[in-house]
Write a structure and sequence with these properties.
Length: 138
């Protein structure tokens, strides 16, 4: 069996723990969550497909098959980890109320994205009472 090195998610979690232990009030994982999943107010585009193509490239997420953008403040999203959510698994919280979201999905044959806007509850992973990972919409 070949030896496996550390995974990027493990390294990010370690960096976040070290930053929090050092007294740094920012949370790099919450910052990354914001970059990857928060767009508030929603960026203006002619349609959801144009929106997804614009944001996935601008935020350097074009390597992802699918990504969800949440159109609310990071403060409201982080409240899912404390007062506005319920347990949905280990370190996971499901929102009590739906959020406006846009799901972007890659069309591999054309290297472009399709978008679909809706309202849905979200499930996120939390660390120190802030969102660090988008799990799914329900």
């Amino acid at each position: 069996m070949a030896a496996r090195g550390p995974r990027p998610a493990t390294l990010l979690l370690l960096a976040a723990c070290l930053a929090l232990a050092s007294g740094d009030l920012s949370n790099p994982l919450n910052d990354l969550f914001r970059k990857n999943h928060v767009d508030n107010p929603k960026t203006v585009a002619t349609n959801d497909n144009a929106y997804c193509n614009k944001l996935m490239w601008e935020r350097l997420l074009y390597w992802k098959f699918s990504n969800t953008f949440i159109h609310d403040s990071i403060e409201n999203i982080n409240k899912v980890c404390t007062t506005d959510g319920k347990a949905a698994g280990p370190s996971q919280q499901e929102s009590n109320s739906p959020f406006k979201i846009t799901v972007c999905t890659l069309k591999p044959w054309s290297l472009s994205y399709t978008g679909a806007s809706s309202s849905a509850k979200i499930v996120i992973s939390c660390l120190h009472e802030v969102a660090v990972l988008f799990v799914k919409s329900v």
